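Quick one, probably user error.
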């Protein structure tokens, strides 16, 4: 069976280094916000090309604290509208609703799965105060184009949870394209911890300082609570693991792109649509998502022939019980995608033989 993901295999490569990191962690005697976190924050800011990186507990908190930070700074207030793609993961929308901001859903391009400036323009009003762009599946949204059509005061926040290392045509990395960005280091992401983890990157010193406080009970100095914060700290042990894996991220992303090229070259079944990609480094293939009219049959056929697949995601957010207030809204492209999309295995440890087996079976369908 070719597994959809094999996290044990993914982490086994780094076993020696991870054990060394763990030993150093024990010996440090400092288990919350220690050197492991500070070092990783510096390394990840430098990797993304941003001035600041603040480690937090997970990706949802990273996004939630960005909006909360802007509320603290007086740049956003309850009821302000935030444009967000309708076909994202639910965390993107929860970060908005959790702050009493109002999500305004927009449709993606049916071939790249990403939102575009033209669609955002249609929904941009004077109530729009922020845009949450989601680099879904690892493909980079064209933030430069969006910047041109919104007001200069509009905050552009990136959800980079699936796009660590994606590079724009201007040479900027995900996390450095808007005003602030949230990352997740959930174990399955391109840069994955061995547990939960997340980070905010930004070039805005005031936002960085606000989030440093928010993640730690509202203060940086012990027993000084300047604002009402929460407890959302990146674990020092996970930060140390992430430093080990960050060193190899470029290789991992190249291997993902290599597999994507093999899929695109090899798959020629007319019942299958391939994702649109210009072969540049603006994609890190967190997922390789194909479309088919016969998605469920294709999924069963692949499984019976020894290939596990997954669906990201089977149900639109507006059709979830959590967001019934939006259940009457129509999103034809998004709903079509949820019924047709299928994710093929694309983790870097897949062998060429396995990739070719997947191609052969898809073509046989
Ligand atoms: C994984 C993910 C998140 C949330 O990350 P967690 O670490 O699980 O909280 C947010 N947005 C997107 C697009 C994701 O894929």
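Nope, works fine. Designed sequence:
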């Amino acid at each position: 069976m070719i597994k959809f993901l094999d996290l044990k295999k993914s982490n086994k490569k780094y076993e020696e280094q991870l054990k060394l990191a763990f030993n150093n962690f024990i010996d440090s005697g400092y288990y919350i916000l220690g050197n492991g976190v500070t070092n990783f924050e510096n390394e990840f800011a430098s990797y993304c090309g941003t001035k600041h990186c603040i480690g937090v507990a997970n990706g949802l908190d990273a996004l939630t604290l960005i909006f909360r930070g802007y509320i603290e700074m007086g740049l956003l207030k309850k009821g302000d509208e935030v444009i967000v793609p309708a076909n994202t993961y639910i965390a993107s929308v929860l970060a908005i609703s959790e702050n009493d901001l109002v999500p305004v859903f927009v449709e993606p391009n049916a071939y790249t799965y990403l939102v575009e400036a033209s669609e955002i323009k249609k929904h941009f009003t004077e109530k729009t105060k922020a845009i949450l762009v989601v680099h879904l599946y690892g493909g980079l949204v064209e933030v430069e184009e969006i910047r041109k059509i919104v007001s200069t005061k509009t905050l552009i926040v990136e959800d980079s949870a699936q796009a660590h290392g994606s590079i724009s045509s201007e040479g900027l990395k995900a996390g450095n394209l808007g005003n602030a960005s949230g990352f997740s280091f959930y174990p399955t992401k391109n840069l994955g911890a061995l547990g939960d983890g997340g980070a905010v990157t930004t070039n805005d010193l005031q936002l960085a300082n606000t989030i440093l406080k928010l993640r730690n009970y509202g203060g940086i100095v012990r027993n000084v609570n300047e604002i009402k914060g929460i407890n959302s700290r990146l674990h020092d042990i996970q930060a140390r693991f992430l430093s080990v894996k960050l060193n190899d991220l470029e290789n991992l992303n190249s291997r993902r792109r290599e597999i994507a090229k093999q899929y695109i070259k090899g798959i020629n079944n007319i019942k299958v649509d391939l994702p649109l990609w210009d072969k540049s480094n603006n994609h890190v293939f967190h997922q390789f998502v194909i479309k088919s009219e016969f998605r469920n049959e294709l999924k069963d056929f692949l499984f019976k022939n020894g290939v596990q697949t997954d669906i990201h995601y089977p149900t639109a957010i507006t059709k979830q019980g959590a967001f019934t207030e939006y259940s009457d809204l129509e999103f034809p492209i998004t709903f079509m995608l949820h019924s047709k999309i299928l994710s093929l295995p694309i983790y870097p440890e897949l062998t060429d033989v396995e990739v070719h087996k997947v191609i052969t079976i898809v073509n046989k369908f």
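The mean pLDDT is 97.
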